[in-house]
């Protein structure tokens, strides 16, 4: 290829497309380099259409020495000789933009770049000097209709070697998404095969080169930028909802409530994505149909009515719904629109104090009763869901004994006045309370609590027949157990709280678990009807408990209950007993110890241990047993010699330390067993053998029966 050979990309418009295609009707022009471009002399006419009337059409030329007038005529601003090999003309309206190329045949190179010329970052630079391949951008509107493929440009090489071919590469050709663009390898025509979507890919960066018949690169690759021209095919959308704003009642005019912004997927550098906002509808429309205003550019919603109209208590509804519309094309009628709903809540402030519905309240309560006696009602115009409405009650006078409390009913906001300590009619039949009410939240500075925020409650106590009261309660006496039947323990005393009714009192036994007691119904004297036993299962820790009733003569009668605690002192009335009462020993045992005996006594110390252990009446010739003291409560029984296999009954006598002492004799059954080869056999010890004293007693008993 010749060093001066150049390749150009021709931008073509499809003649077959019957629809209006925005852009230049002809995109590549060839003009010969004159000796001089003459000032104000027309060079050529360009035809551009945005298919919508060319409103606000502007032209820009890559050289500052040329200008295009509103009719599309290109002319020089002064006499000039050298302008380079190429001029670019950029046309733009709010709806479309395009680029045309003027190839100056015979022109000389000059420095400069398309990006610098138009300050348009998406376009490729003007080809560098000395490069043999020169390309310029291809501009294609998105959303083009059939037919496809359609030519969009042409690579021109006026001095291309024979049999050389054009090759196109890059994303959109041989890289994903593949097959969108292709080039005629012989003619250099560039075509698009399908509809483009700028919102998917706005710019395709391709590369063009020439190759020989073997595919070897001759020139290039040279960048070829395909720019997808935006069309207004996306509506504004509100993506951040729901939109809920709050403004305090009484806020000054111009208070900002919230901001609403929409998104438009179209090119943000064009009016296709230039949004304007307005309020389409306000619900409700009272007290003014224009309660709010939205900044058309920022989307800020502000109040436009006086603070007096933002009074939550006088509004028909404290919630407003606004239909907000966003329109692209800077709000022109041709722009696309999107809508969203803004909900604005008029928030309450505590500008109304609570007031009692009446100045005085009446209540009655029976003496001795507790619980709620009256509900105090208040009115408050503030929002029932806030602390500006919720009431807090305080008793400020008339409650020295803390007999009353007041709490707020969370559902009704009423004050529930309660008796928490029983009242006594005989002490006071009337009570007067002074109660104040406030809000949980503080009032605004210009509002205060007035006389209606306090009320008086008159309480009447009703007399009821109260049961007699024992004094003291419990009653306590101490007596020895086993005192004689009929012994007087005490005389109970019960009084009637109804001192003004002069009633009589009768007494009766209510609970007497062991059946030991009797009470005189007139004078209340308590005496015994049975022997008192400290060791009885009805006695707990030496204390016996009984209950008595005192019944007045009222109609109906009232009853009081008194408790008697009898502490029983111990006497030595229980003999001790031994344990265990059965033992085993081997007939050939080397250790002649038989068993360790223990003793126990139901009485209390000193009527218990130390115990004395003895073998009862063991004769000297038959003396084969021995008992030895271990401690105050235990003794060891042992043999003095081995015995034959048999069962033996050994009488053991145990005596306590009471005064006088108590003695108990218990037979200890000793089994002498055969122990051979680690086996214990007691079966042959069935014959019962007695000690000599036992045999003598048995003989005497037999003689007595003859």
Task: Walk me through this protein's architecture.
InterPro entries: Cadherin, Cadherin-like_dom, Cadherin-like_sf, Cadherin_CS, Cadherin_pro_dom. It is found in: Cell membrane; Cytoplasm. Residues 140-238, 239-356, 357-470, 471-578, 577-695 form the Cadherin domain. Keywords: Calcium, Cell adhesion, Cell membrane, Cleavage on pair of basic residues, Cytoplasm, Glycoprotein, GPI-anchor, Lipoprotein, Membrane, Metal-binding, Repeat, Signal. The chain is an all-beta fold and 706 residues long. The chain contains 2 helices and 52 strands. Strand 49 and strand 50 form a beta hairpin. The termini are far apart.
SSE layout:
Blueprint: E1 7-10, E2 23-24, E3 28-32, E4 42-45, E5 48-49, E6 58-61, E7 66-68, E8 73-76, E9 86-92, E10 97-105, H1 114-118, E11 138-141, E12 150-157, E13 165-170, E14 181-183, E15 189-192, E16 203-211, E17 217-229, E18 243-248, E19 256-259, E20 276-283, E21 292-294, E22 300-303, E23 319-327, E24 337-347, E25 355-356, E26 360-366, E27 371-376, E28 378-379, E29 391-397, E30 404-408, E31 415-419, E32 430-439, E33 454-462, E34 469-470, E35 475-480, E36 488-491, E37 494-495, E38 505-511, E39 517-519, E40 525-528, E41 543-552, E42 559-569, E43 577-579, E44 582-586, E45 593-600, E46 612-615, E47 625-629, E48 634-639, E49 646-655, E50 663-676, E51 679-681, E52 688-690, H2 692-704
Parallel strand pairs: 3-10, 11-17, 18-24, 26-33, 35-42, 44-50, 49-52
Antiparallel strand pairs: 1-12, 2-5, 4-8, 6-9, 7-8, 9-10, 12-15, 13-16, 14-15, 16-17, 19-22, 20-23, 21-22, 23-24, 25-28, 27-31, 29-32, 30-31, 32-33, 34-37, 36-40, 38-41, 39-40, 41-42, 43-45, 45-48, 46-49, 47-48, 49-50, 50-51
């Amino acid at each position: 290829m010749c060093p001066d050979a150049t390749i150009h990309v021709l931008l073509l418009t499809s003649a077959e497309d019957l629809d209006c295609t925005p852009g230049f009707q002809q995109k590549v022009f060839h003009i010969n380099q004159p000796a001089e471009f003459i000032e104000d002399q027309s060079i050529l006419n360009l035809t551009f259409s945005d298919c919508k009337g060319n409103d606000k059409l502007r032209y820009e030329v890559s050289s500052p020495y040329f200008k295009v007038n509103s009719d599309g005529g290109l002319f020089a601003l002064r006499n000039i000789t050298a302008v380079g090999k190429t001029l670019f003309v950029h046309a733009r309206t709010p709806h479309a933009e395009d680029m045309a190329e003027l190839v100056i045949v015979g022109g000389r190179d000059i420095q400069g770049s398309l990006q610098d010329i138009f300050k348009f970052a998406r376009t490729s630079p003007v080809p560098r000097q000395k490069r043999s391949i020169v390309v310029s951008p291809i501009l294609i509107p998105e959303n083009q209709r059939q037919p496809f493929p359609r030519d969009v440009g042409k690579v021109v090489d006026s001095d291309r070697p024979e049999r050389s071919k054009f090759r196109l590469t890059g994303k959109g050709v041989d890289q994903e998404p593949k097959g969108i663009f292709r080039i005629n390898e012989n003619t250099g025509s560039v075509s698009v095969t399908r509809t483009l979507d700028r919102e998917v890919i706005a710019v395709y960066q391709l590369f063009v080169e020439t190759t020989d018949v073997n595919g070897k690169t001759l020139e290039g690759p040279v960048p070829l930028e395909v720019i997808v021209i935006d069309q207004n095919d996306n509506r504004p959308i509100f993506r951040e909802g729901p939109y809920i704003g709050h403004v305090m009642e009484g806020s000054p005019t111009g208070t900002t409530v919230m901001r609403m912004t929409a998104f438009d997927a179209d090119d943000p550098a064009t009016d296709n994505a230039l949004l304007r906002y307005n309020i389409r509808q306000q619900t409700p429309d009272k007290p003014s149909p224009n309660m709010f205003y939205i900044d058309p550019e920022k989307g800020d919603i502000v109040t436009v009515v006086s603070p007096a109209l933002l009074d939550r208590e006088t509004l028909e509804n404290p919630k407003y719904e606004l239909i907000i519309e966003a329109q692209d094309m800077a709000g022109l009628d041709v722009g696309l629109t999107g809508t969203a709903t803004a909900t604005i809540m008029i928030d309450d402030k505590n500008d109304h104090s609570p007031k009692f519905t009446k100045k005085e309240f009446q209540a009655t309560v029976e003496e001795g009763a507790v619980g709620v006696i009256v509900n105090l009602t208040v009115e408050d115009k503030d929002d029932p869901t806030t602390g500006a409405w919720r009431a807090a009650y305080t008793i400020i006078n008339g409650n020295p004994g803390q007999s009353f409390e007041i709490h707020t009913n969370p559902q009704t906001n009423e004050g529930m006045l309660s008796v928490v300590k029983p009242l006594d009619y005989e002490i006071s039949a009337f009570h007067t309370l002074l109660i104040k009410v406030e809000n949980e939240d503080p009032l605004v500075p210009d509002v205060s609590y007035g006389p209606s925020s306090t009320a008086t409650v008159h309480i009447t106590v009703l007399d009821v027949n109260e049961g007699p009261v024992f004094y003291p309660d419990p009653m306590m006496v101490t007596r020895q157990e086993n005192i004689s039947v009929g012994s007087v323990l005490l005389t109970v005393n019960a009084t009637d709280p109804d001192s003004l009714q002069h009633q009589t009192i009768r007494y009766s036994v209510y609970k007497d678990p062991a059946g030991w007691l009797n009470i005189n119904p007139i004078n209340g004297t308590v005496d015994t009807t049975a022997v008192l036993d400290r060791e009885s299962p009805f006695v707990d820790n030496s204390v016996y408990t009984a209950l008595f009733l005192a019944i007045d003569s009222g109609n109906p009668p009232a009853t009081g209950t008194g408790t008697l605690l009898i502490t029983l002192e111990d006497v030595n009335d229980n003999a001790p007993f031994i344990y265990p009462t059965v033992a085993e020993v081997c007939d050939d045992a080397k250790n002649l110890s038989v068993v360790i005996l223990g003793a126990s006594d139901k009485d209390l110390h000193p009527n218990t241990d130390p115990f004395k252990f003895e073998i009862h009446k063991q004769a000297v010739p038959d003396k084969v047993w021995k008992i030895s003291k271990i401690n105050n409560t235990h003794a060891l029984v042992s043999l003095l010699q081995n015995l034959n296999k048999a069962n033996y009954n050994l009488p053991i006598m145990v005596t306590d330390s009471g005064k006088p002492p108590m003695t108990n004799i218990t037979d200890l059954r000793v089994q002498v067993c055969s122990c051979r080869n680690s086996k214990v056999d007691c079966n042959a010890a069935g014959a019962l053998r007695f000690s000599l004293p036992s045999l003598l007693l048995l003989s005497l008993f037999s003689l007595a029966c003859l």
